Amino acid sequence: MTRSLSTPRRSYQSTLLRLERALRTIPGSRLIPIGEAVHGGRRYPLLAVTLTVGPVGRRHNRRPLRVCLGAGIHGDEPAGVEAALRWLEAIPAIGRRLPAAELVIFPCLNPSGYERNSRSNADGIDLNRQYKNPRAPVEVRAVRRAIEGVSDEQAGRRFDLSVEFHEDVDSAGFYLYELIDRGRPIGRRLIGAAARRLPINHADEIEGVDAEAGIIHRDRRAVLRRRSRWPHALYLFHRGTPHCLTFETPVTVSLSRRSDAQAALFTLALRLLANH
Ligand SMILES: [Zn+2]
Questions:
Q1: Is residue 7 one of the residues assigned to a domain?
Q2: How close is the Cα of 175 to the center of ligand 1, in Å?
Q3: Which structural domain, as residue segments, surrounds residue 239?
Q4: Which residues are within 5 Å of ligand 1 (an ion), measured at CB?
Q5: Over the stretch 54-102, which tens digit does the pLDDT of each residue have?
Q6: How many domains does the chain have?
Q7: In terms of DSSP bridges, do strands 243-250 and 161-168 run parallel, antiparallel, or are they unpaired?
Q8: Within 10 A of 10 (CB to CB), how many other CB atoms are there?
Q9: If 0-12 CB within 10 Å is exposed, 13-18 middle and 19+ buried, where does residue 156 land?
Q10: For position 235, which CATH number holds?
């Protein structure tokens, strides 16, 4: 039997059930409805997760890191959503050993694309180019509103780090984007750790831009000049997030390996940033 393009490939509903199950094991975590997308009569609740991790009951001098994690904005990159779930499912075991951090997680930024295994949402729109558009689809407007509610650079409530989980079907190896305004880069350490789990893309040019040892450094000025078609990461950068990472896994290895690698690299990014 042939499967039509619009036939769902995955169930967002069962992903949400799994998410709710994971959050029940994390004291203080919250699942926050931020909006609803409707496509072809199907309703997709849009959700954010908030939680804190790190040592409990022990005094630490530093204020907690504030971190934003986004997954699944491209619906045909399933390892990101799986990685966010696996990371949350591991929190009861590893949460206290993590550095103190307050997190906002968007576990599935494009639910209709996720179900259909399409990069775009069900209306054919690449949500990761819509973050500057005042009339962006609801999936983007809801996330912008949620981020504006928790981050305000003027009030000193910016995120310290944003991480996005992506995949690249055209790449035979892992690579990452590192966009940094201040502080020390951590890309090399992340690539070193990724190399123990995945092949690395060592090309000098990836996606038409210069790369070095699996890292694409975005030039800050060029990024700030970009007037339209903002991706999620650039929106967060413009809102004062000084360190933005985008992980790109190759699909040449199993979903399980890609997801575990994304989750492990996210943990490492928290540790590296906390030690700066
Ligand atoms: Zn992507």
A1: no
A2: 12
A3: 12-274
A4: 74, 77, 166
A5: 987 656 667 899 999 999 999 999 999 999 999 999 999 999 999 999 9
A6: 1
A7: parallel
A8: 17
A9: exposed
A10: 3.40.630.10
